[in-house]
Amino acid sequence: MFARAYGALALVASVLISPSNAVTYTPLKPPSYPLAVRSPYLSAWIPGNVVESLPSNNAQFWAGNTLVWSVIARVDDTTYNLFGVASPNDGTKSGTVTVATYTSTHSTFTVTAGSRSFTLDFFSPVSPKNYLRQSLPFSYLTVTVAAGDSSSVQIYSDISGGWTGQSSDSTWSYSTSGSTGVFQIEAVGQATYSQNSDGQALWGSAVYATRPSDSSTLSTQSGPRVSVREQFIDNGTLSGNHADWTSGAVVGFAHDLGTISDESAVTFAIGHVREESINFLGAAQTGYYRAKYADTVDAVTYFLDDYDDANSESTDFDNLISDTGSSSFGSNYSDILALSVRQVYGGTELTIPNESLDTSETRAFIKEISSDGNINTVDVIYATFPIFYILSPAYLKLLIGPVFEYMATDAYSENYAVHDLGANYPNATGHVSSGESMPIEESGNIIFLTYAYQLASGETDLYDTYSSQIKTYATYLENNGLYPASQLSLNDALGELANQTNLAVKAAVGLATYGKLADDTSYITTGRDWADKIWTDHLGTDEAGTRFLIQYDITPWFLVYNHYPDVLFGLDVFPDEAYNATSDFYPTVRQDAGIPLDGSLEWGQTNWQGFGAATVSGEARDIFINDIWAYISNGLNTAPFSDKYWTSSGSGYTAGEYNSFRARPTLGSHFALAALSGANTWSS
């Protein structure tokens, strides 16, 4: 009753705040729709609150800057703008958006143009166990004209040089492979592994490709945007001329479908390719797919060849995510999971050595998008790991394997786990001395991640390879974990504090987890003894045992997200009474839009709320899930799913508005509740 009533109130609030006119949003209108989200550098979105005027609004990079990407159609010689035409040519009309839908892999929009209806399907495959498919740095756009009266129909699409990260200087080329046409746009004069101020890659190539459908004739053109589009508007085809690059120009394709009454579709591929993609300790890494398709034209041609199989897999995958969410909590939860998936995998890249192209040396790299740009931040991997635990446990090895490799070098000499592999993605060149250090936090996290991989995959190779390192970090926890020295935790907004209960909880659960890895019950006993001190003896709680405190004997309370591995792994480090207490307590401190991260704050983080939901029951669990759902459906936000939002109103901000962070991959934490039902549930 509570969940249903609460969700209904949130939905009413959403409608009142952001009326949707004639557009039907399914399952809800999110802050932002993922359009092409496949890597930190191929990350295109459209804010939910502009979807009803989709024909005149541009796509955006995750940071919010404009990406020119348009779709225009002619129906019986009348031209309609369907998507991304912010500056329409004279004589054109805007289509009318009627339906907007998202699943875990597709964002689709139905637009009426004259007598015909068009569906724009933005499809970013998520194939967790098919490394070739997952690593291809491209996304699909399929434009389908529905069956209708007999009409002459042509479809046009273009992109600009802004996809290269700069608009001042680029070059482009056009080539073919069979019937496939491929434009490549390259930034000029920029250093490898460099980014612009919005986080776009300044090296590599933006790619746009298509091929004729069974019923279409393809034509191409590049040059000034207005003149290229005018050519299509006047003639329904393009000239075939490929002018030299100029600022603001576009590369365009036109499909002439002729006079048709049946349904017909054309598909485009958009991408961003970097041959040298990651600098790992001085050695260039490249995309996994290049072991088979080293040439970009070959790669994007294969990507288009793979559409039917990828699309078929996506149907099964979308159903799995929907069923997983619904069976774990209900439709609100499945809505959250579906919106989270592309953001997680789109922040992660699969690589192999660029020199050898040896797939036996596959690694994965994850970007701490928008918060500080670190690469393979251990606590970001920890925040993300539940989705990998369910869908692709090998990713945990691929992500922390490079971290272990670095910590085994002479460049790292600490007796606790490192915070990250580098300050600025894609440079995994080692932790900088001025960067954050979280000794207990990351030592516990690296142990959790190793055991999560082992438990979910049934493989012991990661622990077997790095057992001596892992023991060093367990020893650090044993020597320093019960009374933590002044240091940072994941709640780094608090700064460095001594005797953080949060860190002691992590150390206790971390030691017990190490006991499972090493098959040494003494560590499990120590972890439980510490939990007894923290909980039963009230070292880390108030005297009545109703709440956990930020520091020993110091208020306020905090959200005990580090209980999650104890619950997931079935360790029984903390007693049921501790979990019953938090279940009872959290509803009493809920603010207007949710439960904050701790009692001193007016903001919360959905990643740790996701962990919290998996450790409590009853009303508390309902609140966590329904508050996240209300946050993404309230109509107040436009940023790609931010995991940090205001839970209370104050000067300059409103409860339910996003606070900071955009498009971070940490949304894997939303799968924490679902992960309790089992690991490794996806079969490719």
From TrEMBL:
Residues 1-22 form the signal peptide. It comes from the Eukaryota. Residues 330-673 form the Glutaminase A central domain. Keywords: Signal. Residues 105-323 form the Glutaminase A N-terminal domain. This is Glutaminase. It comes from Penicillium angulare. The lineage of its organism: Eukaryota, Fungi, Dikarya, Ascomycota, Pezizomycotina.
